[in-house]
Amino acid sequence: MPLTRTSTVTRTTTVTLTTAFTLTALTASTLTARADSSDPWARSWGNNASGQLGNGNATLQLTPTNVQGIARQDLQELAAGGAESSGTGTATTPATSFAVALLKDGTVMSWGANGSGQIGNGTTNTQVAPGAVAGLSGVSHVAAGSNHALAVRNGRVLSWGSNASGQLGNGVTAADPGGAQKTPVPVQSLDRVVDVGAGCEFSVALRDNGTVWAWGAAADGRLGNDDERTNSNTPKQVKALTDVVAISVGCAHVLALAADGTVKSWGRNSDGQLGNDSTVRSTVPVTVQYLDSVAKVAATTNGSFAVLDDGSLRAWGDNGSGQLGDGYTDDRTTAVPIDAVQGVKEVAGGPEHTLAALDNGSVIAWGANTNGQLGSGSTAASSTPVVALPAGSDISHVAASTNGRSSYAY
């Protein structure tokens, strides 16, 4: 932003959900196989209009398909970005959905929409199968935002794609010479970075001293520096935040996990995604209430999740499509337990659906399903978890498009 996104996600009116439901605890015995559990490839499903599933075509996929040429054993990290097209006629906003994959050899592959150069191959051509990001090796982490991407190499951050709000962090914006970038460029004045995250036109980095830095769009306070009006095209430190061990970035909010197992948040809060018992945005970090012993955090488009040390799940924020999984469709301003889903290894989600990788190697999903993003074989929404990949599939990680309807597992 000046964001092309509104403060809330438009929800499809064709999905019918019950206002309350009871989740049944999921175990290996209750998971019905939908795919060959011995399949060695990274998997993807859902919307594929821009080739963002990486399977060589642009056809909608209602069940998991293979990402071409990327085996799970070779894949270190996969990040999915972008959004669906919106509007009609001359007011249509093109789709930006894409994905970036870091291989264990330190090289990076990408595919999907490329109108802003977000797949980093030196062109603006859409690509339906993985190809190399230009000139990248020795990479340790990647991230994908609404229309830009990040990579960490030797503690430094590289960026490419749209730069409309300074989200590339290279000291210029799209209006300047060298604004949008079709190949990676260095982020200024930042070193010793151990992780990165990307949202809707902003970027976040975690340094090895536990401090957090942000740059790009300032709207809604997403930079965490007590300023929601001034975009920054170079990194600025998030105020009063130390001892952070992990970050996760939504469309316009950020979660930061502290060493003591507590969670801080800042940015947009229209759906309660900051978890501080309000819907008022915050330009500086606030504490997520009623939450401790957190092992992992996951910020979805306008929602938030925490995996606790015991593998149980907590959720808060946007719930209009039942994507929090608590049995209702009411937004939550504080963390609520998702008691029926246990043994969680990782969570990810888009604006209206959620994925979870369980400790039995399966992937489950719930929420809206307009483009088959649940992987259930239909486009019917599900207010209870459905199986995308069965137990024994050897899956540990999931990802979903920043503001879209595409899903990934590896």
From TrEMBL:
Recorded hits in Gene3D superfamilies, A to Z, give: Regulator of chromosome condensation 1/beta-lactamase-inhibitor protein II (2.130.10.30)
Q: What PROSITE patterns does the record point to?
A: RCC1_3 (PS50012)
Q: Which UniProt keywords apply?
A: Guanine-nucleotide releasing factor, Repeat
Task: Please give the InterPro entries that the UniProt record associates with this protein.
Answer: Ran_GTPase-activating, RCC1-like_dom, RCC1/BLIP-II, Reg_chr_condens
- Residues of the signal peptide: none
Instruction: List each copy of the RCC1-like domain by range.
Output: 154-402
Specify residue ranges for compositional bias: Polar residues.
45-57
What Pfam families does this protein's entry cite?
RCC1, WD40_RLD
Q: Where is this region: Disordered?
A: 36-57
Tell me the protein's name.
Answer: RCC1-like domain-containing protein
